[in-house]
Amino acid sequence: MSKRGILLVNLGTPDSPRVGDVRRYLDEFLMDERVIDINAVGRTLLVKGIIVPFRGPKSAKTYQKVWNENGSPLMYYSVRVKDMLQEKLGAGYHVELGMRYQNPSIASALGKLKAAGVKSIKVIPLFPQYASATTGSVHQRVMEEVSKWQTIPDISFINSYHDASDMLDIYAENGRKYKPEAFDHIIFSFHGLPQRQLVKADDTKSHCLKSADCCRRLTDANQFCYSAQCHNTARLIAERLAIPKEKYTVTFQSRLGKDPWAQPYTSEVIHELGKKGAKRLLVFSPAFVADCLETIYEIAEEYDLEFKALGGEKVQLVESLNDKPEWVDVLARLSVS
Fold first, then answer.
1. Residues 188, 53 share a domain
2. Same domain assignment for residues 138 and 245
3. pTM above 0.85?
4. Residue 90 sits in which domain range?
5. What is the pLDDT of residues 19-40, one digit of tens each?
6. Cα separation, 332 vs 336, whole angstroms
7. Residues 139, 15 share a domain
């Protein structure tokens, strides 16, 4: 009997923290037209002429700080989850892992599913909130690859699961052990996107950035808006922990370049709170299902040091879903739904 195929896809990571591998990763990542969505000539000059040559060595040093005996944390947890999901689903399913950038590639993962003779493929991007630069890019790459096949099985895609109750319960439980009520403020820090990409995602052309609170409530007009989905995720976690609205802020990190990105910026909010006398901050990062450079280093180290320089005591990172069995249960539900 034919098996059902499940393709898990995460963003990706360099093969090693060496400069050459980091440059190859950055080149593939930033040359994606959905990531840097400008004309091809401008993107090539920017990425290959400026960002990769100059940012590669600096990024390599950062990756070296998070690399451990298991290698890249993002890769380690992604492989663990893939193996755990395979065990959970059993013999009727074939689970593969692909990375949007670098290895294992989406093409190689799809090739294994094809070779296994699966009768269907469900693609589950490991990004709870939809964005063109993440989930949209994964979907496009999968379709480009299978378009070359002579026989194409049934293929379905998970668009987003930013409001998945069982997933939100895990984030809340992870945070609960730190006693959120004991912190001066709670931050929900999501990966940033250029504002122009948020505007492009507004099919109505009449909602995005038309008001200061356009993302605060999820509606039909902004249902595919990354920022609106982030705000919704944060609100639902906060409700589970009884965190009042005035005690938490939704922010965005990891911006690149001079163009305006989704705001407010995490670093600026942390600075503002530090200047106001806050001493202890608790930070959730619900755009990431596995701890990685953006959480382990950017939040737990960089922001912590910046905050302490302002007189603060601690920026406490709430760990991500990683390889928790409950997270595998969420993926199993998405796989069979």
1. no
2. no
3. yes
4. 4-161+325-336
5. 999 999 999 999 999 999 999 9
6. 6
7. yes
300 and 243 fall within a common domain: yes
Number of domains in the chain: 2
Cα distances (Å, whole numbers) of residue 224 to 171, 198, 218, 239, 331: 22, 9, 9, 22, 21
How high is the pLDDT of residue 204?
85
- pLDDT at residue 267, rounded to an integer: 96
Shared domain check, 204 and 123:
no
Whether the CB-CB separation of 102 and 131 falls below 8 Å is answered with no
- Two structure tokens written together for 59: 């990024």
Same domain, 155 and 14: yes
Using an 8 Å Cβ cutoff, are 268 and 221 in contact? no
Is 183 within 8 Å of 282 (Cβ atoms)? yes
- Are residues 231 and 298 part of one domain? yes
Q: What is the pLDDT of residues 274-328, one digit of tens each?
A: 999 999 999 999 999 999 999 999 999 999 999 999 999 999 999 999 999 999 9
pLDDT tens-digit profile of 223-269? 999 999 999 999 999 999 999 999 999 999 988 878 899 999 999 99
User: Across residues 199-203, what is the average pLDDT?
Assistant: 87
Q: Residue 135 sits in a domain of what CATH number?
A: 3.40.50.1400
Q: pLDDT per residue over 232-245, tens digit each? A: 999 999 999 999 99
E strand intervals along the chain: 4-12, 93-101, 120-125, 154-157, 185-191, 248-253, 280-284, 314-317
Tokens of 267: 């670093």
Contact 243, 258 (CB under 8 A): no
- CA dist., res. 126 & res. 157, Å (int): 12
Say which residue the tokens 């709870």 belong to: 128
DSSP state of 245: G
Residues 19 and 117 occupy one common structural domain: yes
pLDDT at 197 over 90: yes
231 Cβ contact partners less than 8 Å away, ≥ 6 residues apart: 215, 216, 217, 218, 250
- Give phi and psi for 58, each to the nearest 5: -65, -45
